[in-house]
């Protein structure tokens, strides 16, 4: 097999990424991908336009992350993000996609009170925004929430390791470095799986530990700053495209420099207007 053939599955083949299917991807497709040993990409999106780009690019799973607080809403952390903000932007992402599984993050304060509150807000994201699954942070501490939401028929993605909604107690440090923390993370991951989660995000954990968790679970792991041993990888789209203002985490790879490109376009437009070279005849009506 050529390298190209190894990397690019034939059109129509049963793969999650880049497949040509017209129906929306489900959590069952994701479970099947782990059985095939297939790795898959996930990106965040926060609006219909960007989501449609990723959907057309074959990204099978799109997360409407509460990272919107940092990237789009101008907050310092994800902590202030509200259900209204999540619902509005999640609905836009669903409208912009036809094939990707869209997952909505439950924001801080929307599930910590208990399972009934969690189910109410998960249900809102499904009914009002149309997401196919929700994500919440925490293993053991979010088990009752996970169980009740799954029982209600809503797929749940768990999120372990660095959980940014706990920044005020946790900081933004690598998690699971010592033996005790590593065992706790493994326990959390197994508990999430037991409670019915369909996948687990592992954020900012040592690569060896993330690989061990991945081998120990039958549901897929989605890494971010967790090395190459997870089943899937997720990045915040504005980080990977070079659009985020300011510092981006070291685990991000930058695939474009949209901040430069967009800034250059804005300057070129401004120069045209101030210099009187835009609009031209072809942009005018008589
Ligand atoms: N734009 C953006 N990208 C993200 O990845 C992201 C958000 N926003 N908002 C929510 C959380 C916060 N995240 C963060 C924030 C900071 C670090 C950070 O400073 N990490 C250090 C490493 C720390 C260590 O070595 O322990 C780094 O240098 O990357 C990591 C993840 C990830 N999430
Ligand atoms: C980085 C991912 C996992 C996330 O939770 C977010 O974007 O909010
Ligand atoms: Mg999040």
TrEMBL record:
InterPro entries: Pantoate_hydroxy_MeTrfase, Pyrv/PenolPyrv_kinase-like_dom, Pyrv_kinase-like_dom_sf. Its cofactor is Mg(2+). Mg(2+) binds at residues 66, 105, 137. One of its GO terms (molecular function) is 3-methyl-2-oxobutanoate hydroxymethyltransferase activity. The active site is at residue 203. It is found in: Cytoplasm. Its EC number is 2.1.2.11. Coiled coil: none annotated. Catalyzes the reversible reaction in which hydroxymethyl group from 5,10-methylenetetrahydrofolate is transferred onto alpha-ketoisovalerate to form ketopantoate. Homodecamer; pentamer of dimers. Belongs to the PanB family. This is 3-methyl-2-oxobutanoate hydroxymethyltransferase. It comes from Streptomyces qinzhouensis. The lineage of its organism: Bacteria, Bacillati, Actinomycetota, Actinomycetes, Kitasatosporales.
């Amino acid at each position: 097999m050529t390298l190209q053939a190894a990397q690019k599955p034939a059109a129509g083949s049963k793969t999650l990424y880049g497949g040509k299917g017209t129906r929306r991807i489900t959590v069952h497709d994701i479970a099947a991908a782990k059985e095939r040993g297939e790795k898959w990409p996930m990106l965040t999106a926060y609006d219909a336009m960007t989501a449609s780009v990723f959907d057309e690019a074959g990204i099978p799973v799109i997360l409407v992350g509460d990272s919107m607080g940092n990237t789009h809403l101008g907050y310092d952390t994800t902590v202030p993000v509200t259900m209204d903000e999540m619902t509005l932007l999640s609905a836009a992402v669903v409208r912009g996609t036809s094939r990707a599984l869209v997952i909505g993050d439950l924001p801080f304060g929307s599930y910590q009170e208990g399972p009934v509150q969690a189910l109410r807000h998960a249900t809102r994201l499904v009914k009002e925004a149309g997401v196919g699954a929700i994500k919440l942070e925490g293993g053991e501490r979010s088990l009752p929430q996970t169980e009740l939401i799954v029982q209600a028929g809503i797929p749940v993605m768990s999120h372990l390791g660095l959980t940014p909604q706990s920044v005020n107690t946790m900081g933004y440090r690598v998690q699971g470095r010592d033996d005790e923390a590593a065992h706790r993370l493994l326990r959390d991951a197994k508990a999430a799986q037991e409670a019915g989660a369909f996948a687990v995000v592992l954020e900012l954990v040592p690569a060896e530990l993330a690989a061990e968790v991945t081998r120990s679970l039958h549901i897929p792991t989605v890494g971010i700053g967790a090395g190459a041993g997870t089943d899937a990888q997720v990045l915040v789209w504005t980080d990977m495209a070079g659009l985020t203002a300011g510092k981006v985490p070291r685990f991000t790879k930058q695939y474009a420099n949209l901040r430069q490109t967009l800034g250059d376009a804005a300057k070129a437009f401004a120069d045209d207007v101030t210099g009187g070279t835009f609009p031209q005849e072809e942009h005018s009506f008589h």
